[in-house]
Amino acid sequence: MASNWDDLKPRVLSAIAMTIIGAFGVIAGGIWFQMLVVFVTAVMVWELWMMIRSDEPTKGMLLAALVASVLSGQIADGTSLGLLLFFVVPIIGATQLKKEQVTFFVFALAIQVAGWGLVHFRMDYGFVWLLWMMSVVIVTDIFGYFAGRTLGGPKFWPKISPKKTWSGTVAGWIGAAVVGYIFTIFTNAGLWIIVISMVISFAGQMGDIGESALKRRMGVKDSSTLIPGHGGLFDRFDAVLGAALFLLLIASVFNVPGVAF
């Protein structure tokens, strides 16, 4: 039983540090949040490259630098034509690989789109809206971690993510519902946000599953070793990517102009 909690201390300390940095960026907004998202996005693309082609780190760093430049330009540009730049890094990176070209293309594209979406969520919908989404993701992870380690039980998808259990997965949904309910008390959001919070929770979990499938395919335990107890930034923000992509899809399909908080 003790081994289940061996990673708790470094995980908690790293989480505290990331929370402080992330909270500053989210609250400050503007250029501060943009720089934070650009940095995290670029590092995740570097980690993606290194998982596929670890023997050529220089190319990975150059791609990361290109991501930072392209994403910064897209944020400043804001036009539909500028969004075509999303394909630059995935295409260039894929052409430099002898295998897993489609894998790199799909994940690199998803990472960039999610990063762009986060910045625009903050600009278009404001601090509270982004705080809600991030709270759902964080609480889902916390509830899922402790419920999974404490209750155990049947695995959610053992071939992809051996540690993820149904107890942890459902606990994450419950935690997300609690977050949604809290936001109905302190904001003007209706009860619908409770259901949406649970759906966002599931989308984040699917982001986690997607990254787990990638690591399993690449034969690696973590995306990198940058964060003690968490692996890499990709390991830490995979759920945020899933949630952001889902919200971006919903906002686009239903032409949501904003959220009434």
UniProtKB/TrEMBL annotation:
<keyword id="KW-1208">Phospholipid metabolism</keyword>
<feature type="transmembrane region" description="Helical">
    <location>
        <begin position="102"/>
        <end position="121"/>
    </location>
</feature>
<keyword id="KW-0812">Transmembrane</keyword>
<dbReference type="GO" id="GO:0005886">
    <property type="term" value="C:plasma membrane"/>
</dbReference>
<comment type="pathway">
    <text>Phospholipid metabolism; CDP-diacylglycerol biosynthesis; CDP-diacylglycerol from sn-glycerol 3-phosphate: step 3/3.</text>
</comment>
<dbReference type="Pfam" id="PF01148">
    <property type="entry name" value="CTP_transf_1"/>
</dbReference>
<protein>
    <recommendedName>
        <fullName>Phosphatidate cytidylyltransferase</fullName>
        <ecNumber>2.7.7.41</ecNumber>
    </recommendedName>
</protein>
<dbReference type="GO" id="GO:0016024">
    <property type="term" value="P:CDP-diacylglycerol biosynthetic process"/>
</dbReference>
<feature type="transmembrane region" description="Helical">
    <location>
        <begin position="12"/>
        <end position="42"/>
    </location>
</feature>
<dbReference type="GO" id="GO:0004605">
    <property type="term" value="F:phosphatidate cytidylyltransferase activity"/>
</dbReference>
<feature type="transmembrane region" description="Helical">
    <location>
        <begin position="62"/>
        <end position="90"/>
    </location>
</feature>
<keyword id="KW-0443">Lipid metabolism</keyword>
<keyword id="KW-0444">Lipid biosynthesis</keyword>
<comment type="similarity">
    <text>Belongs to the CDS family.</text>
</comment>
<keyword id="KW-0472">Membrane</keyword>
<dbReference type="InterPro" id="IPR000374">
    <property type="entry name" value="PC_trans"/>
</dbReference>
<keyword id="KW-1133">Transmembrane helix</keyword>
<keyword id="KW-0808">Transferase</keyword>
<keyword id="KW-0594">Phospholipid biosynthesis</keyword>
<keyword id="KW-1003">Cell membrane</keyword>
<comment type="pathway">
    <text>Lipid metabolism.</text>
</comment>
<feature type="transmembrane region" description="Helical">
    <location>
        <begin position="127"/>
        <end position="146"/>
    </location>
</feature>
<feature type="transmembrane region" description="Helical">
    <location>
        <begin position="239"/>
        <end position="260"/>
    </location>
</feature>
<keyword id="KW-0548">Nucleotidyltransferase</keyword>
